[in-house]
């Protein structure tokens, strides 16, 4: 009862977005629960056959990840808002903490081995029940975005951290404007979600091209693109 209340509360807190340029969260897109389900629940051809995810290693990998970001090991994938918030809290402390998060992610991947793709698959997770599309997308986005920022993104963050951070501090209003524009576009034309997405990732690219340099612009655009690529084909940065 108390736990449900906390989860409900945290989802309310995160619904408006954290707008952290180091790690996008589902709340940043300002979509309603219904919109998340509408735009992200359509299975593509690659999901016709879902593999297996054994619950025992999954629980163990997840417990390890939760501990590493400072949460109780009992924090499960069903508490994706809390996991995401704690991960951002760590990353915001600096490069050493980002490295620690990446190490935790690496451990998570290694524990799951070949089951990683299935254990972090939205359709698989929704099939386990007792969850919703919001939570499933928050969780899969967390893992997908970590995959990127812990590989391609890591060195770029390392050398450009100060200007990237300006996207949440001094120039936060401009950065957030891309998300508000996205929300307005999606609501004005609900049947052109992918068109809105294309404009949105371009907005992010332009912002960081100017704020930092072309390489950061590309990387931040790419970081956003991967969150939409499954549902919108042909996006590019
Ligand atoms: C989010 O994380 C911060 C620490 O980074 C913590 O103070 C806050 O309570 C967390 N909020 C939720 C809803 O988990
Ligand atoms: C998103 O856009 C809709 C329609 O313009 C608006 O009613 C809503 O308040 C916006 N959401 C946020 C969180 O700004």
**DSSP helical segment count:** 12
Unreliable residue stretches: 1-8
Please give the domain count: 1
Which small compounds were modeled alongside the protein? 2-acetamido-2-deoxy-beta-D-glucopyranose
Strand content: under 5%
Q: Main beta sheet: strand number and arrangement? A: none
The shape, in one word, is globular
Helix content: 55-70%
* Rg estimate, integer Å: 17 Å
**Category by helix and strand content:** mainly alpha
- Listing every helix as H and every strand as E from the N terminus to the C terminus, the arrangement reads HHHHHHHHHHHH
Q: How many individual β-strands?
A: 0
First-last Cα distance: 45 Å
Question: What would the average pLDDT be, to the nearest integer?
Answer: 92
Protein name: DUF19 domain-containing protein
Organism: Caenorhabditis elegans
Secondary structure topology:
Elements: H1 2-15, H2 33-40, H3 55-68, H4 80-91, H5 95-112, H6 116-119, H7 122-127, H8 133-149, H9 152-165, H10 172-188, H11 193-211, H12 214-228
Bound molecules: 2-acetamido-2-deoxy-beta-D-glucopyranose (2 copies).
């Amino acid at each position: 009862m108390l736990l449900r209340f906390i989860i409900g509360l945290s989802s309310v807190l995160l619904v408006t977005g954290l707008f952290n340029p180091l790690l996008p969260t589902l709340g940043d897109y300002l979509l309603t629960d219904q919109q998340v389900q509408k735009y992200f629940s359509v299975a593509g051809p690659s999901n016709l056959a879902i593999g297996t995810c054994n619950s025992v290693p999954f629980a163990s990998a997840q417990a390890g990840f939760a501990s590493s970001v400072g949460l109780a090991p009992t924090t499960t994938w069903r508490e994706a808002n809390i996991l995401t918030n704690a991960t951002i809290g760590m990353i915001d402390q600096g490069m050493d903490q980002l490295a620690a998060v990446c190490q935790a992610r690496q451990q998570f991947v290694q524990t799951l081995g070949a089951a990683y793709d299935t254990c972090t698959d939205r359709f698989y997770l929704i099939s386990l029940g007792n969850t919703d599309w919001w939570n499933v997308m928050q969780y899969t986005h967390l893992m997908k975005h970590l995959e990127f920022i812990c590989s391609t993104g890591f060195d770029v963050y390392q050398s450009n951290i100060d200007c990237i951070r300006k996207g949440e501090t001094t120039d936060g209003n401009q950065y957030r404007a891309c998300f508000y524009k996205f929300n307005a576009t999606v609501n004005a034309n609900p049947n052109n979600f992918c068109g809105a997405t294309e404009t949105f990732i371009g907005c992010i690219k332009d912002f960081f091209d100017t704020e930092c340099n072309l390489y950061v612009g590309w990387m931040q655009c790419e970081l956003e693109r991967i969150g939409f690529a499954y549902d919108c084909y042909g996006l590019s940065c």
